[in-house]
Design brief:
Structural class: mainly alpha
Strand content: under 5%
Radius of gyration: 38 Å
Number of strands: 0
Number of helices: 24
Helix content: over 70%
Largest sheet: none
Shape: elongated
Order of helices and strands: HHHHHHHHHHHHHHHHHHHHHHHH
Length: 654
């Protein structure tokens, strides 16, 4: 063995020792983070088992003897400021010094364009080689950053030769810049440096923009873009480099806007980009990248469709393809955090991402795409020859979307968080509840929601599904809000009680009570159902009182001659209130519901107060005496019946 080879081996051994120490520190910190997150006793992770071999115990003891490592955030901040921050400032200062020297030399005529380009390229090559040598000596970060600066200098020198000084044709300059990018990426892969490869990918996306390359065809431009993005995503997937994947998604999305022309090429490219990005992000547990890919896919599609001349049914078709890519990428997802198939990826991901952020990203990727598709599809249909049937098509489309997500919720695995069945079922029911509003409005929409409320509530009771019953309650609530919100549109000559409006209002105000009564057939209702059930009875009772009072008012208004029928109207309303109070008392005793009896008593007192204070003040003396006698008889009868029934209940209970 020669002296040179012996020296090389010693240097390599020292480098391995430094790497080993660094790995031990990282392992020790990972254990601390895992103990902090899971709540384990750190001594259980650090203390070797008695049955372990002596060598393993010795390794563990040596790892304990390492200096205490502070929080990884503090370590990163200190390293970035002291190691990388100062290095970055130093490299920037060197670049500025060279730039000012070159500027001065150009102004004084010392060097020409060719010398400038060659000097820049030569300095860049020298910096790249020197950086790699420094990295081999153990200063990895320092050497890689210096090499990155060298490749950047070569890259900019080629750009200057083509764009500034026209020393080479633009097409040749583009090829040379791509070659520099490829070499830099290869060096980054060999050195296993994510930042190096990400910087190279950024240069690849920047090359067409810097040179303003006039591509001979959109196929060539999109082909280059697809090749670069596909390679970056493949490397990011294999190496687990989330920042490289982010660069690929950003560059692959926005650079597509620079190409114009064939709508089908751009449509296929966007669909493929979204699908590939989502698959890679999902398999590597990157909800943030999934959200970015999904949002950018739709944004670029909407913005670029104008220049790409995508409209009408073609626009709706490509929107369908993008949504299907979103849907297929999320099929089988039970947990957007990670399913444990790759423990290393999942642990690293959990350390770097907040739980709430992970859940929100996963939820957005699940919930937003179908709505984006629905809005895009409707816009495309309204811009096509099917615009006259757009509302009917929208109704069917919303119903189909709702059915798809309901089937996925029923057939899929239970899951957790944003990947659970709950959100897919909620999405499906939301689309089914939204569907009628696309076609109908006012009283027709109220009837449609009443039908859905009855159907969902019945299905929820039969299938023992609380979420289905919740959809039924939502449908009844929407029906009530729609009816009372549009009652001012009711025709003036519409008959009271028996007309379509009147009967629809009766069913609408009774829907909440029907839902609450249906819970009696449920063996184990949810806690929220138990809590909200009395409130639904109360709301239904108040709404029924308002509906009956309004219909009586309408009945007498249609007779005309308001002064003649004022007394009859007021007494009829009072009689309705008194009968309603009696009905509540009867129901309360029959079902043994004290709150209902209290409501009946309150209603009877309110009705009596109305008669005493308002109605009887407008009567003549003879009518007033007769009315007081009649009111007294009714109230005494109610009191006797109440005491008789209530006293019987008390005696039986005692």
């Amino acid at each position: 063995m020669t002296q040179h080879e012996h020296q090389r081996l010693l240097e390599r051994l020292k480098e391995l020792e430094r790497d080993s120490e660094r790995f031990q520190r990282e392992l020790h910190e990972l254990r601390r983070e895992l103990a902090r997150e899971k709540g384990y006793d750190r001594s259980q992770l650090d203390t070797p088992d008695a049955a372990k071999p002596e060598a393993q115990a010795a390794d563990t003891r040596s790892s304990r003897e390492l200096p205490v490592v502070r929080s990884w955030r503090q370590v990163d901040l200190e390293f970035w400021i002291g190691g990388r921050g100062l290095l970055l400032v130093g490299v920037a200062a060197l670049v500025f010094a060279v730039a000012f020297f070159v500027k001065e030399a150009i102004e004084r005529g010392w060097i020409g364009p060719t010398i400038r380009v060659l000097a820049g390229g030569g300095i860049g090559i020298a910096a790249a080689i020197a950086g790699d040598r420094i990295r081999a000596l153990g200063y990895r970060t320092y050497g890689l950053w210096l090499s990155a600066g060298g490749f950047s200098a070569v890259y900019l020198s080629v750009w200057a030769a083509a764009a500034l000084y026209a020393l080479v044709p633009v097409s040749v300059g583009f090829v040379l810049m791509v070659v520099v990018v490829g070499v830099a990426a290869a060096v980054g892969l060999l050195r296993q440096s994510e930042s190096f490869v990400a910087l190279a990918a950024f240069g690849g996306y920047l090359a067409p923009i810097l040179l303003q390359v006039g591509t001979p065809s959109n196929l060539f431009g999109l082909g280059y873009l697809a090749l670069l993005t596909g390679a970056a995503l493949a490397v990011a997937y294999r190496a687990g480099w989330v920042y490289l994947a982010t660069v690929a998604v950003l560059g692959g999305s926005f650079l597509a806007l620079a190409n114009r022309g064939d709508p089908h090429l751009h449509g296929v490219y966007i669909v493929a980009l979204v699908a590939a990005s989502l698959v890679v992000a999902r398999r590597r547990y990157w909800p943030g990248v999934s959200l970015l890919a999904m949002l950018l896919g739709w944004v670029v599609f909407w913005i670029g469709s104008v220049d790409w001349q995508i409209s009408g049914i073609t626009f709706a078709s490509y929107a369908l393809a993008i949504w299907l890519a979103d849907l297929l990428a999320s099929l089988g997802v039970t947990d957007w955090v990670g399913d444990g198939k790759d423990a290393a990826d999942e642990v690293a991901f959990r350390r770097e991402t907040k739980p709430l952020a992970r859940e929100l990203c996963g939820l957005a990727v699940t919930v937003l795409p179908p709505w984006f598709f629905f809005a895009s599809a409707m816009a495309g249909i309204f811009d096509s020859s099917f615009s006259d049937r757009a509302q009917e098509i929208g109704l069917v489309l919303a119903a189909i979307l709702g059915a798809i997500y309901l089937v996925q919720a029923v057939a899929g695995a239970p899951g957790r968080g944003a990947g659970s069945r709950f959100w897919r079922a909620a999405l499906g029911f939301t689309f089914l509840l939204t569907a009628p509003s696309v076609l109908w409005e006012d009283v027709a929409l109220t009837r449609a929601w009443l039908v859905e409320g009855i159907a969902f509530t019945t299905a929820g009771v039969a299938l023992k599904r609380a979420q289905t019953r919740a959809a039924g309650l939502a449908a009844f609530a929407l029906a009530v809000l729609t009816y009372w919100g549009s009652v001012y549109l009711r025709p003036g000559a519409d008959a009271a009680f028996i007309s379509g409006w009147g009967l629809t209002g009766l069913v609408a105000v009774s829907g909440l009570a029907l839902w609450a009564m249906a819970l009696e057939r449920v063996e184990e209702p949810a806690s929220w159902e138990k809590a909200i059930r009395p409130l639904m009875f109360l709301v239904a009772g108040v709404l029924f009182l308002a509906w009956g009072t309004g219909e009586i008012q309408r009945f007498f208004d249609l007779k005309g001659d308001q002064e003649r029928w004022t007394l009859a109207r007021d007494l009829s309303i009072s009689a309705f209130w008194m009968l309603y109070a009696a009905a509540l008392l009867a129901l309360g005793f029959w079902r043994q519901l004290a709150p209902v009896r209290w409501a009946g008593l309150a209603m009877a007192l309110i009705a009596a107060a109305k008669v005493f204070i308002y109605d009887l003040s407008n009567l003549d003396r003879l009518y007033r005496i007769f009315s007081f006698v009649l009111l007294a008889a009714v109230l005494l009868a109610l009191s006797f019946w109440y005491q008789k029934t209530r006293g019987k209940d008390v005696s039986e209970s005692s």
